[in-house]
Structures are given as structure tokens and as C-alpha cells.
Design goal:
The chain has 413 residues and is of the alpha+beta class. It is 36% helix and 22% strand. The strands form three sheets. The chain has an eight-stranded mixed β-sheet, with helices on both faces. Strands 13-12-14-15-16 form a five-stranded mixed β-sheet, sandwiched between helices. It has a three-stranded antiparallel β-sheet with strand order 2-4-3. Strand 3 and strand 4 form a beta hairpin. Helix 1 packs antiparallel against helix 5, helix 5 runs parallel beside helix 9 and helix 12 runs parallel beside helix 14. The chain is elongated and about 90 Å long.
Length: 413
């Protein structure tokens, strides 16, 4: 038997119903704040990610699915969606629109990594981006919107970690300081951390090696090196979150795995998820548009893993599927009438299902009860008996009278 590739999965109807709740809540919460939906292609030019995400990141170095498109062009299945959205912003002249341009998405991503619970090679992300504003209110708004979404979905055990990476110049100066510190303690670090001291020294804070963690407890912190402007921006973001009543913990070791982040960064975790505790997070990326050959343009956004949110939202129960009418046939000669009745009911805006399995009439009525149909239309010899499944009452009707009776919620049955 052929099975789905390792690290991928099928979205079955039961799971699709829960995912629909995620989509509906996202559209409701973000739409109310003026964010509009966008979708980008599944694959993009590889250069978009090597330049935008960062050549030194794990994503670009070892996690991307890259291929030749047959014409000598290198293409990559998108491992994340912020860079593609910035590419679309530039390509479609969105800088000419009123700023900021506020967008949201719900799309699949692909990363070549070891599959485990909450970590897959094909996964779905919901996210929001605000491009064209450097105001701290934009950072705070996006953080609050993500918190609102997690709360609306019933994601349990959430905690918010917050920090600032400063501007690129501040970060570059700190990077030199941190690199020197790591070189001085090189013998106490893991091979992985040593191998990327020059490429991405900040990732040393992510290490789960105990000796490395002991070293990093004495490492200089970027939040202590922020200039006055960066520190002021961060203080304003925190004040807005305080006003919103959002609880957070300052974590100067918080390092997002993408090079384009500047200033505010954050991550929501869930105690329900174990080792892969990250549910969603994001940050400001004021230099990303420039990396993609655009003009200086501030931006900020976040992404949250759909699968991880659903794992942590253990009590989420999607609403039961509504069935207004089940059309049953007592004899084969009623099939054409039944087919037309089901079609007309759908055109009238009703949720209508038709008997397709060749069950006996008794079996059809059992099935109608199983799917919680409000009414059953039993077609026989050109006549229709409409049964109210709640009261058990039924009466003979002309086929043309069935739909109006259901729309009225006919009490005369």
C-alpha cells in the first residue's frame, strides 16, 4: 500500500472541520482590524529566501526543498511566507497604496527536517503582516491580535516571551562582542555552536546542551546594548501591551531563526506541546524590503503553526454540520424526482443531501437521523412525504411545496 511521504499527512474531514474554525476565527479577528487576505505561490525563486531569510540560517542551509525548474532556474518550495509577501508587495506596487498595507494568509510551507509531534515537513501557517509602518503601535497591535486568536481558539497554557534585537547596526556591534565571547569559551561549546560562531552566533542561545547553556548564562545580552531610539521603541511597545492587560515575560535570549528581524521580537509558547512548545511568533523586519531591492520600508508580522494550535486547543469542538433536508427514495421510480428535489433545495440555499448508497427506506431514515437532518423527504410514485425528524410528524406534499415548507420551518406537520 502506498502511503503519504514521511513528515506529511492527509487532512481528513474531521480535521478539516477544526481547521475551518481556525480560518474563520482568523478572518474574523484580523479582518476586523483591517487585514486582508493574500496568497503567494507554493514555490518561489531560491534567491528570494537565500537573500531574504538569510544565508546563515538553518532554513537556507539545510531545510529547503530546492529544485531546477527544467529551464536552469533554481526554485524552492516556500519554507516561510514573509519574504514572499514582501516580494509581492514590491512586484505589485503596493507601496503606492495607503500605508501600512495590512495582510493575512493561511498557507502551507515546506521544510526538510526530522518529523515529530508538532513538526512536519509540510505544515500550515496562519500569519499577518503590516508593511509600511514603524510605529510601536503596529508591533503591539499584531501581538495583541495573535493573543486574541489563540484565546478564541482555546489554545491552552500560552506564555508570551518578548525581546528586542535593536537595529542592524546595534545588532552588528553586539554580534562582534558575542563572537569574541564565544571564541573565548570555544572549548566548552558543542560542535554545532562552534561551527556557526561566525555565521550566526546568536543561535548559541538556542542550544539545549547543558555546557553551552552554562556558558551562555554569562554571555553579554543584546537588550543591554540597545541605543536610546531602540530602547524607547521597545518601551513604548511594552507600555501598550501593559495597557492591553497582556501578560508577558522579558526574555533577552529570545532569538528568532530568521536573519531579517529587527527591534521587537516575540514568541507564544504552549505548555501543552512539550518540546516543540512554540505556537507562533514574529517580529519587526525593517530591512527586509531593502534586501529584496526595494526602498527602505518598515514591516512587522507574525506566523502561527496551524497544527500546533490545534494540538494545544484540546477542547475545540467544531460546530455540527447542518443538514436541512435528506431526500430518501422509497422505490427506484422516485430517483429522478429525488435528484431534482435535492438540487432545487440547494439552489434555494438549503443544506440538502441525497440518498446515494442504495439503502432500504429504514436504513435511509437511520442515516438521516445519524447526520441530524431536520427534515426527510420520502419520494415514492411521484409523491413526497415530508417528515419532521424532531417531532416525528409527516404529511404528504406536492414536490413543489417541500422547499417552501422547510424554509418556513413548517409547524403544520
Amino acid at each position: 500500500m502506498i502511503q503519504a511521504p514521511r513528515g506529511t499527512f492527509d487532512i481528513l474531514p474531521e480535521s478539516a472541520a477544526r481547521r475551518k474554525v481556525v480560518e474563520e476565527q482568523t478572518e474574523k479577528i484580523l479582518g476586523a482590524a483591517g487585514y486582508r487576505r493574500i496568497e503567494t505561490p507554493t514555490f518561489e525563486a531560491t534567491e528570494l529566501f537565500s537573500r531574504g531569510v538569510g544565508q546563515a540560517t538553518d532554513i537556507v542551509q539545510k531545510e529547503m526543498y530546492t529544485f531546477d525548474d527544467g529551464g536552469g532556474r533554481s526554485q524552492t518550495l516556500r519554507p516561510e511566507i514573509t519574504a514572499p509577501i514582501c516580494r509581492a508587495y514590491l512586484e505589485h506596487g503596493m507601496h503606492k497604496l495607503a500605508q501600512p498595507v495590512k495582510l493575512w494568509y493561511l498557507s502551507s510551507c515546506f521544510r526538510a527536517e526530522a518529523p515529530q509531534r508538532g513538526r512536519y515537513r509540510q505544515f500550515w501557517q496562519v500569519g499577518a503582516e503590516a508593511i509600511g509602518s514603524d510605529a510601536p503601535e503596529t508591533d503591539a497591535e499584531l501581538i495583541v491580535l495573535l493573543a486574541d486568536l489563540l484565546d478564541a481558539l482555546g489554545v491552552k497554557g500560552t506564555r508570551l516571551r518578548l525581546s528586542s534585537l535593536g537595529t542592524p547596526q546595534t545588532r552588528a556591534e553586539y554580534r562582534e562582542e558575542l563572537t569574541a565571547f564565544l571564541r573565548a569559551h570555544e572549548d566548552e561549546l558543542t560542535d554545532t555552536v562552534r561551527s556557526r560562531i561566525d555565521l550566526n552566533p546568536l543561535r548559541a542561545f538556542d542550544s539545549d546542551d547543558r555546557r553551552t547553556q552554562a556558558v551562555m548564562r554569562d554571555a553579554p545580552l543584546l537588550t543591554d546594548r540597545l541605543n536610546d531610539e531602540d530602547a524607547g521603541h521597545f518601551a513604548q511597545v511594552r507600555a501598550l501591551l501593559d495597557d492591553a492587560g497582556l501578560v508577558y515575560e522579558l526574555d533577552p535570549t529570545l532569538v528568532r531563526g530568521l536573519d531579517y528581524y529587527t527591534r521587537t521580537v516575540w514568541e507564544f509558547t504552549s505548555d501543552e506541546l512539550g518540546a516543540q512548545s512554540g505556537v507562533g511568533g514574529g517580529g519587526r523586519y525593517d530591512g527586509l524590503i531593502e534586501l529584496l531591492d526595494g526602498p527602505p520600508t518598515p514591516g512587522v508580522g507574525w506566523a502561527a503553526g496551524v497544527e500546533r494550535m490545534l494540538l494545544a486547543a484540546t477542547d475545540m469542538v467544531p460546530p455540527a454540520e447542518l443538514v436541512d433536508l435528506f431526500v430518501a427514495t422509497a422505490k427506484p421510480d422516485g430517483r429522478r424526482t429525488a435528484f431534482e428535489l435535492a438540487r432545487d433545495a440547494r439552489r434555494a440555499g438549503l443544506q440538502a443531501q441525497l440518498e446515494l448508497a442504495g439503502r432500504s427506506l429504514k436504513g435511509q431514515l437511520k442515516h438521516a437521523d445519524r447526520i441530524r437532518a431536520r427534515f426527510v423527504a420520502i419520494v415514492e410514485n411521484g409523491h413526497v412525504a415530508l417528515k419532521d425528524m424532531a417531532s416525528g410528524e409527516q404529511r404528504e406534499l406536492n414536490a413543489r411545496e417541500v422547499i417552501p415548507a422547510i424554509v418556513r420551518g413548517d409547524r403544520s406537520l
